[in-house]
Amino acid sequence: MTTEPGLVVVDKPGGLTSHDVVARVRRLAGTRKVGHAGTLDPMATGVLVLGVDRATRLLGHLMLTDKAYDATVRLGVATTTDDAEGEVVATAPTAGLSEEAIRAALAQQTGDLLQVPTAVSAIKVDGQRAYARVRAGEDVVLEPRPVTVRELVVHDVRLGPETVEADVSLRCTSGTYVRAIARDVGSALGVGGHLTALRRTAVGPYGLDVARTLDELADDFAVLPIAAAARAAFPAVDLDDAQAGDVRVGRSLDLALGGLSAVFAPGGTFLALYEPRDGRARPVAVFV
């Protein structure tokens, strides 16, 4: 069995790597040409967007979109991985912390930030993943990266003498490490911190409302067709026949675009992604 090009939005369970999910979808789709738009750690659950066949070429552009998460931060304990899967490296009592101070520290993690990624990230250092270097015993310190946390809402703070937990929701740019937010809040408060739960609730326009579990996909496998996926993720421009012909051979167009856009032939066939450059619309990726 083979499947048409498109996206599959999976509600990833805990305990599986993103590659595990890709492997399962490859079997269900009947093709090895499956990739994902942004890794989720094994501990994390929620929205994992996969591309099948030609739609894998959309994924690099989807990774530029905002993502949303629900998370639980535990203060009073620091770990090697900044989450619950790492070894404890430090503890500190939290009896002196007030809810107001915790909320203020979390509020400081909004806006434009220079964030140091967690050392066990998939970022490459001299050609090798940072997490692999950490596992080999190296002391890895990554360079700060600009990220934007557009919104961080604190739903609940549970105070305790030894640890404190806070449930939060946030919306941020791709590349933001929620684990690093937990770490940095704990550091700012002087008690250490890590993440105990993480659920991704959206990647760009794709949320939990359209996500399906692996069991559901095994019973009834289907993709979001590439044309529908492109219309959902990018501004859409419908072309005439002459313009569509130009796109098919990679020509620029005399169109005013507001940003990266999906262009369609008459009849709705998705043709390409175009961007404004030098006063014209120019191809970024052609799909026909």
From TrEMBL:
A GO MF label: tRNA pseudouridine(55) synthase activity
Reaction(s) catalysed (UniProt annotation): uridine(55) in tRNA = pseudouridine(55) in tRNA
The keyword rRNA-binding is assigned to this record: no
GO terms under biological process: mRNA pseudouridine synthesis; tRNA pseudouridine synthesis
Domain Pseudouridine synthase II N-terminal: residue ranges: 26-178
Active site feature: D41 (nucleophile)
Name of the featured protein: tRNA pseudouridine synthase B
Gene name per UniProt: truB
